[in-house]
Amino acid sequence: QKEVEQNSGPLSVPEGAIASLNCTYSDRGSQSFFWYRQYSGKSPELIMSIYSNGDKEDGRFTAQLNKASQYVSLLIRDSQPSDSATYLCAVNMSPGANNLFFGTGTRLTVIP
Amino acid sequence: GAVVSQHPSWVICKSGTSVKIECRSLDFQATTMFWYRQFPKQSLMLMATSNEGSKATYEQGVEKDKFLINHASLTLSTLTVTSAHPEDSSFYICSARGQGYDTQYFGPGTRLTVL
User: Fold this and answer.
1) Partner-chain contact A90 B49, CB within 8 Å
2) In chain B, residues 72-91 whose CB comes closer than 8 Å to chain A
3) What angle do CA B35, B37, B39 make, to 5 degrees?
4) A96 in Cβ contact with A54 (< 8 Å)
5) Is the bond leading into A112 cis (omega within 30 degrees of zero)?
6) How far is A19 from chain B (nearest CA, A)?
7) CA–CA distance from B86 to each of A32, A53, B46 (Å)?
8) Fewer Cβ close by (within 10 Å): the C or N end of chain B?
9) A97 and B102: CB-CB below 8 Å?
10) Would you say B64 and B2 are in contact if contact means Cβ atoms under 8 Å apart?
11) Which backbone phi and psi does A83 adopt, to 5 degrees?
């Protein structure tokens, strides 16, 4: 079983819609969760981090964490064509862990 | 804040030569730096983790004698690809993390092409 799993997509949504990206993880003791965005040919950039159950909002982005169900999601409201990218979910599996575990990413396309 | 730079952004070299890539944290002290490799349309692959002042820890299958990593200061880590071959052509990305934090910030990447 992979440590961090994402649907590879592609996920297509029309401009202005809500894009929902999901991620599940295997280690119930995981503490920290991150969403990165990676444009084609570029390196990942941090969008959000979340540490507690519930929702965390930052502009058009909302991260949702449910530790009991071991999933974390990212909602993008009012999707724009510029949001078209691959979104990577990353999980810190345990306190003091030296590394993040990355999912393979979900490719999102926002259709004008 | 949390800016990471990489140099060069791209490099083309002949087979058999060595290439050095620098990764710098510009506005924070990076106690840990990570080196990733990414082939086209594939996910990130962690190559090694380096802590300042100590030897790097390489992931399984990564040749430590081929990919030399030095993390001599809290703001600089280098990756040297020795005796590069065409199959080493890839996108190399570093990331950095400050002490006590678990967020990794990525550099812009270095695209290596070996002819």
Assistant:
1) no
2) 91
3) 170
4) no
5) no
6) 21
7) 37, 46, 20
8) N
9) yes
10) no
11) -80, -10
Query: Which residues of chain B register pLDDT less than 50?
Result: none
Q: Where does chain B show beta strands of DSSP type E?
A: 4-7, 10-13, 19-25, 30-38, 45-51, 57-58, 67-73, 76-81, 90-98, 105-106, 110-114
Q: Tokens 């969008």 label which residue?
A: A47
The confidence score (pLDDT) of residue A1 equals 59
Q: Please report, in tens digits, the pLDDT of each residue of chain A (112 residues total).
A: 568 999 888 999 999 999 999 999 998 888 899 999 999 999 999 999 999 999 999 999 999 999 999 999 999 999 999 999 999 999 987 665 667 889 999 999 999 9
Question: Which residues of chain B lie closer than 8 angstroms to A103, CB-CB?
Answer: 43
